[in-house]
Write a structure and sequence with these properties.
By secondary structure, this protein is an alpha+beta fold. The protein is built from eleven helices and eleven strands. The strands form three sheets. It has a seven-stranded mixed beta sheet with strand order 2-3-4-10-5-6-7. A two-stranded antiparallel ribbon has the order 1-11. A two-stranded antiparallel sheet has the order 8-9. Strand 6 and strand 7 form a beta hairpin. It is globular and about 55 Å long.
Length: about 350
């Protein structure tokens, strides 16, 4: 891995997207959210996704400068058709609307169809948490997950993010796939020349598979895929991850009238059109926010203060690892895999924005 200044990396990604015709604000939103994933130690959703974004734009599947259509609206809710727009910018604006609505009415909800990759779900739930609200963000994804006892995919990695504020500017920030891992984790295995660990994925026969290249190829044709959270079968709770994944499809796609299940398909070069769901709840609907945050702080302190299991150094709560990784990235630069960096540099040069390529810190 190499480390690159966060502002400079964001600027480079933004310049590449603008060179492809994406308006400035949308390019900046996308760059900020992609880089945030790498900064937090989630490379599967970071700038490694830029290549698929470039391909989607060049193929006309991802569009800049599009205004989402409002399909249905009430004082507390909206349903949008993103019309193929930049998923990260569409989602940032939708979450801002949800937060402003919750500020007025106590709750705000928005579901979106016909969108594109929106980065890390936790980025949006944390937007609400920083406004003394409870935040929820969900998205469906291409059908990569194999239901319990099946051998072909029927749902995506379908992440769930939930964030709540605590005293001392801390957050409980849960951001989890409903599959054991994401496709990005399989891509990381392939880039690093490793095997898929047991319990992560199933091949075309429904049994465990170790070859990441074979699995990534097979998943394009709905042969095998990722196992639900809990792993193979139901003995370790795989049916629970399966159920959560279907729940995400219901909240994102069925509420918006969008595509779900095997209807959500990636191509060989770009990601599928997907659906999102955002929600914010004002804490003072329930109790005084200061008291809530004080109790949240006590809870997080109790969790982090637990005695670690033998062989482990410490106990974490959801979001703590990411926060510490982000603090280091802000100091020392954002970690990026060397091959990913070479791809970004090549893209910048081919698009005539090589001057935007920053220097490596190490």
């Amino acid at each position: 891995m190499i480390r690159i200044s966060r502002p400079e990396l964001e600027g480079c990604v933004s310049h590449i997207l603008e060179a492809l015709g994406i308006p400035g604000e949308e390019a900046e939103d996308s760059a900020r959210i992609l880089v945030a994933a790498d900064a937090r130690g989630i490379p599967s959703h970071g700038v490694a996704r830029l290549s698929r974004c470039i391909n989607g734009i060049q193929a006309g599947l991802i569009k800049g400068g599009v205004t989402p259509a409002v399909l249905r609206e009430t004082p507390i809710s909206r349903v949008l058709d993103a019309q193929g727009g930049m998923g990260m910018s569409v989602s940032r604006k939708a979450m801002e609307w949800v937060i402003e609505t919750a500020r007025k009415h106590g709750v705000g909800v928005c579901s979106i169809r016909n969108s594109n990759h929106f980065g890390i779900a936790g980025f949006y739930s944390e937007m609400a948490a920083r406004q003394d609200m409870l935040g929820i963000a969900l998205t469906n994804t291409a059908a990569l997950g194999v239901p319990t006892f099946a051998r072909t995919p029927m749902f995506g990695t379908n992440p769930i993010a939930f964030a709540a504020p605590a005293c001392g500017d801390r957050l409980f920030s849960l951001d989890m796939a409903t599959t054991t891992v994401t496709r990005g984790a399989i891509e990381v295995c392939e880039r690093e020349g490793g095997e898929i660990p047991p319990g992560w994925a199933a091949g075309a026969d429904g049994r465990p598979i170790a070859d990441p290249s074979r699995l990534l190829e097979d998943m394009l044709y709905l042969r095998g895929g990722l196992l639900p959270l809990g792993g193979e079968g139901d003995a370790s709770g795989g049916h629970k991850g399966y159920g959560l994944a279907v729940m995400v499809d219901i909240l994102t796609a069925l509420t918006s009238g969008g595509t779900f299940g095997v209807g959500v398909r990636d191509s060989a070069v770009t990601s599928a059109r997907v659906c999102h769901f955002f929600m914010a709840l004002r804490i003072d609907l329930f109790r005084d926010p200061a008291d809530f945050k004080q109790d949240m702080g006590r809870m997080l302190d109790a969790l982090a203060g637990l005695t670690p299991a033998e062989g482990r150094e410490r106990v974490y709560y959801a979001g703590l690892k990411s926060r510490e990784a982000e603090e280091r990235s802000n100091r020392e630069g954002v970690p990026v895999a060397k091959d990913v960096w070479e791809t970004i540099k090549a893209a910048a040069c081919s698009l005539g924005v090589s001057e935007a390529v920053p220097q490596i810190r190490n």
